[in-house]
Amino acid sequence: MRNYTNTPQQVHAIEDAFADGMSLRTIVRKFHIGCQTARKIRDGVHPLQNENLSYQRCPGCGGKVIMPCVLCRVRKMMDEERTIRLNLWDRRQEVHTTGWR
Fold first, then answer.
1. Spatial separation of the C-alpha atoms in residues 37 and 4, rounded to whole Å
2. How many H helices and E strands in the chain?
3. Distance of CA 30 to the CA centre of its chain
4. How far apart are the first and last CA of the chain?
5. Distance of alpha carbon 69 from alpha carbon 72, whole angstroms
6. C-alpha distances in angstroms, 70 versus 24, 40, 53, 59, 65?
């Protein structure tokens, strides 16, 4: 891992290099960045490419996130799965206690 800080100017220079047709490995060597960083810039998902991101407070968990909050969505899915498992467990207990006569 290379400990270089990326600035928006560096990110724009790397975008221009990709637009000029430079390969991934050449850009990694020239700009002294990691392969994953170069891929993120190439794919347009690097955080410094999206300068107009607005962080908001999530009403569910209170975290400062880009909406929609992923943590709240995951917690909701886990609660739903837990409810399904508990309902199945209750049904198994009912069948076990009544017997199969």
1. 11
2. 4, 2
3. 28
4. 66
5. 6
6. 31, 20, 16, 12, 9
Instruction: Find residue 65's DSSP bridge partners.
Output: 56
Locus of tokens 């050449």: 26
Separation between Cα atoms, residue 30 and residue 41, nearest integer Å: 15
- Summarize pLDDT for 50-91 with one digit per residue, the tens: 766 678 899 988 888 888 889 999 999 999 999 999 888 888
d(CA 36, CA 58): 29
Q: Tell me if 64 sits within 8 A of 53, measured CB to CB.
A: no
Q: What is the DSSP string of 26-60?
A: HHHHHHT--HHHHHHHHHT--GGG-TT---EE-TT
Facing residues of 57 across strands?
Answer: 64
| The most confident of 30-34, 50-54, 92-96, by mean pLDDT | 30-34
Show me where the domains of the chain are located: 1-53, 55-100
